[in-house]
UniProtKB/TrEMBL annotation:
PANTHER family: HYDROXYACYL-THIOESTER DEHYDRATASE TYPE 2, MITOCHONDRIAL (PTHR28152). This is Uncharacterized protein. It comes from the Eukaryota. It comes from Clathrus columnatus. GO terms for molecular function: (3R)-hydroxyacyl-[acyl-carrier-protein] dehydratase activity. Coiled coil: none annotated. GO terms for cellular component: mitochondrion. InterPro entries: HotDog_dom_sf (IPR029069), Mitochondrial_HTD2 (IPR052741).
Amino acid sequence: MIPIIKQLIHNYHKLVIVPQKRALSRLSPAQRDHITNWLSKHEFPLKQEPLLDQLSIRRIEELACTLPTLDGTIPLLSRRLTNQIRKGIELSPGHSLVFCNPVAPEKDLESDATISVCPPPEPFVRRMWASGSFRFLHPLYLGDEIISERSVKNIDIKRLDSENPMVIVEQEIATSVTASFDGSIISPGRAEGPCIIETRSHVYIPISNKRRSQKVEQTLPESDFSFTYIPTDTTLFRFSALTFNAHRIHLDKEYARNVEGLNERLVHGPMTALMLLEVIENNRPSNLRIDRFEYRATSPLFINSPITIAGKWTNDEEVNIWAHSYDNVVGMKGRASLKRIGS
């Protein structure tokens, strides 16, 4: 895990121009003691308040008009889902990301307008969605009522004595059905227990004093399929609204440049992960379904710049997939295992 996080932070710094006024090189002894004492007050797993939601037709219609794989922008490569959305159809992999998201009044948001789970104290003010995974155990259907049971599995502090200290917050989210779309508590043949088990890792780092603007060139492997799109202001606004995420790094250009020190607003990590799943879903054999998926962010991806999702089959039931910018900087890597439908 740690080499992955180190690579993400290294590439992040190479894509930012950070204001000197908030520069920080190493933590002071008092800061190190403060963050260590903060961590000592937590016991794991740390359960969060469960969240309830309904897999509404309206929400999926809005998502279908947001994702380039679904909105028909690229007719031959997009699947038009809007004409098929109705109660009882199976929820596509990853679409659970727009349900059961926490809410909070504006006064309770972090300084960057996020709703954070166990955010560390200053100076760890920069948050990145670093990695995650999905296990798709049982199908969910539009109209189902669901519960999301969340816990913080672990918080890890790394490299406190270096110039690149970090705090890693790992979550686990188990989503289950409480009432089926057909009105029953649990429909006949529907399995009890979690339908999806998801993990998420957020990394918190201090403002850095490094001023680097060069981009890391990546050598890209050959792909079996690909999909290219341009995330716009509208795309990011809509995805932020769907996930009730006001993180200013996605919406506020001046904030992204002047506070976070970025060249532009960033594409959401979970949106890129969802796009990886979407492109797999568009290119999988019809007799297979996605069983497991894991992903990790490696570099920021920016608004109004072409992003290509490309995949390579490693065998009949496993695929590697990645997202890269127009100049071949890989922003996210993923891997999916598929299994035969009905098995």
